[in-house]
Amino acid sequence: MLRIVKYVLYDILQNRIVIGYTLFLLAASLGLFNLSGDPTKGLVGLLNVVLIVIPLVSIVFATIHFYNASEFIELLAAQPIRRSVIVWSEFFGLAVAMILAVLVGIGIPVVLFASGATGLTLVIVAAGLSVAFVSIALLASVMTRDKAKGIGVALLLWFYFALLYDALVLYLMFSFADYPLEKAMVAVIALNPIDLARVVVLLQMDISALMGYTGALFREFLGTGWGIGFAFAVLMLWVFVPIVVAVRVFRRKDL
Amino acid sequence: MLESTLLSKSFGKLKALDSVSIRMEAGQAVSLVGPNGSGKTTFLKCLLGLVIPDSGDLTLNGQHILGTWDYRRHIGYMPQIGRYPDNMRVGQLFDMVKEIRRDTFKRVDDDLMRAFEVETFAHKTMRTLSGGTRQKVSACLAFLFDPDVLVLDEPTAGLDPLASEILKEKVLAEKSKGKLVLVTSHILSDLEELTTDVMYIIEGQVQFYQSIEALKSRTGEDKLNRALAQVMRKVDKGL
Predict the structure, then answer these.
(1) Chain B partners of A78 at a C-beta cutoff of 8 Å?
(2) How far is the C-alpha of A200 from the C-alpha of A129, rounded, in Å?
(3) Most Cβ neighbours (<10 Å): which of A117, B90, B149, B170?
(4) pLDDT in tens, B72-112
C-alpha cells in the first residue's frame, strides 16, 4: 500500500488548493493570535475557524480529488492489487496531506503563541476533524457516480454538520422541553463530528460560558477527563467507520 | 486461454452483456466491434475486474478469475482515456507501476518507451502533456510487463500517424509471439491490419464471432468494412 500512498501524497502536496489552504490557515491563526493579544481568546477564535473551514475544505477537496482521479483509479484497479488497497491509499494520501496542512497552518502558530495543553488539544482535534471529513467524503464519493452530484452531496453534508445540525438539536430541545432529554442529548452530540470537536476543546479550555448546553451536559455526566476521552473516542469512530464502509462499497463497485 | 460462459451484466434496465459465451486462444487478435454502448467496453472491463458481472463465469488459462485479483499480472491494459494525477511526473508513473508489480513480472519490455522516446518527456508533469502524449504513456504501460493478454481500448485514437504506426507494429509483433490481443476501435482499417478475428456485439449479445477471412469469404467482400456493413444490414433486417 505504501508503494501507492507515497505517489498519491506527492501529487496532492503539490496541489495549489492544498498549498493555498495551508497558507490561509497560517494567516488566519497568526492574525487571530496577534489581534486578540490574549492567547486563550486567540484559541477560541481559532476554534471557530477550525470548526467551519476545516470540515468544508477537507470534504470538498477530498471529493473533487477522488472524482478527478477516477481514470487513474481505474488504471490502478486493472493492476494486480486488491481494490481495497486503492481506497486505503487514496485515504491515507488525503489524510496525511490534510494533517500536514493543519500542522503547518495551525500547529506552528499555536506553538509560537499558545503552547500548552489547550493549544495541543486544538491541533489534535483539528487534525482528527480533517481526517473524519476526508473519510466521510470518500464514502460519499464511492456511493455517487456523477461528479457534480458527488460534490453537491459533499457540500450538503458539510452544511448539515456545520450549520443545520445545531438548529435541529435546538428544535428537538424546545419541542421536548418537558421531558428529561439530557442523556439523549449526549448521544445526539456523538452523531456530529463537529460538535464532538467543539466539546473536546471547550472541555479542555474549561470555559463554561462558551460550552453551551451540550458541553455542560457532557461535563455533568462524564466529568472533564472522561468527557474528553469519550468525545475523542467517538470522533475516532467518525474517522474509521465511513472509510471502512467506503472500502466495502468500493470492492463491489463497477468502475 | 480465455473463456467466458454465459457472462451477463445489466446497468439498471440496460443489458450491457447478455449471456456472452466466447472462447479465445493465445495467438489470436480479436476485434470487438459494435455500435456505441453495445457492451464492448463492458466485456473488456469484466475481464479486467473493473466491472463485476451479474452472472456467468470467466476463466483465464483455466483459472476462475471473477472476484480474484492476482490474474491481472497477465494482463496489460490501455484505457480509452488516460488521465493521470496532475502533478505526477511521467517517470514517477512508471516507477509506481513497476513498484506495484514488483514481484509479479518476468521482464520489462521497454521497446515502446524507446520508440516513443519517453525519456525526453519523463521529467514533465502529467498536467502539461497533450492528449496524444498521454496516449503514448498509456500504451507504454500496457506493454511494459510483457503480459500474455493485451487489452487495448481505442488504442490509435488521438495518436499521430507515426506513433500510431509504431503502436500497430508493436501489437503485430506481440501477436506473433503468441499473445492474446483484444482491441476495440471504430477505425476498421486498423482492425483489419491488426486482428485475426471479429466479435460483433449488439445490445450485449454476440451476433457473430469468426475469423476475418471467413467473414470476407462468407460475404464475398475483400474489405473488412464492406463485409461488416453487409452483415450489419442483415442483422438490422433480422436475417
Answers:
(1) 48-50, 72, 75, 77, 79
(2) 11
(3) B90
(4) 999 999 998 888 999 999 999 999 999 998 887 778 888 89
> Cα A51 vs. chain centroid, distance in angstroms?
8
Confidence band for A166, pLDDT divided at 50, 70 and 90: confident
Q: Residue B94: what pLDDT?
A: 93
Which 3 state secondary structure label does DSSP give B225?
Answer: helix
Is residue A126 over pLDDT 80? yes
Nearest CA to CA, how far is B229 from chain A (Å)? Answer: 32
d(CA A251, CA A77): 10
| pLDDT grade for B228, boundaries at 50, 70 and 90 | confident
Percent of chain A clearing pLDDT 70 (strictly above): 94
Which run of H or of E encompasses B111?
helix B111-115
- Can you tell me the distance from the alpha carbon of A84 to that of A145, in angstroms, rounded to the nearest whole number? 18
In angstroms, rounded to a whole number, what is the distance separating the alpha carbons of residues B54 and B42? 12
Q: Give the minimum alpha-carbon distance from A247 to chain B in angstroms, rounded to a whole number.
A: 15
Mean pLDDT, residues A44-61 taken together:
92
Distances (CA, A) of B70 to A82, B4, B37, B162, B226: 8, 18, 29, 35, 41
Cβ atoms within 10 Å of A251's Cβ, excluding its own = 15
Block residue for cell numbers 451484466: B9
CA distance B229 to B206: 16
Q: Which residues contact A223 (CB under 8 A, 6 or more apart)?
A: none
Return the amino acid letter for A162: A
Q: Residue A66's closest chain B neighbor by CA?
A: B85
* Average pLDDT of the segment spanning B135-160: 92
- Half-sphere exposure of residue A145, counting CA atoms within 13 Å on the CB side? 4
Query: What is the spatial distance between Cα A175 and Cα A167, in angstroms, rounded to a whole number?
Result: 12
* A2/A106 Cα distance (integer angstroms): 27
- Residue A30's pLDDT is 93
Q: What is the pTM of this model?
A: 0.91
pLDDT for the residue B187: 86
Q: Cα torsion for A177, A181, A184, A188, to the nearest 10°? A: 30
B99, A3 in Cβ contact below 8 A?
Answer: yes
pLDDT in tens, A203-254: 787 765 566 666 677 777 766 777 788 888 899 999 999 999 999 999 989 8
Q: Cell 500500500 maps to which residue?
A: A1
Element (DSSP H or E) covering residue B122: none
Residue linked to cell 490481443:
B181
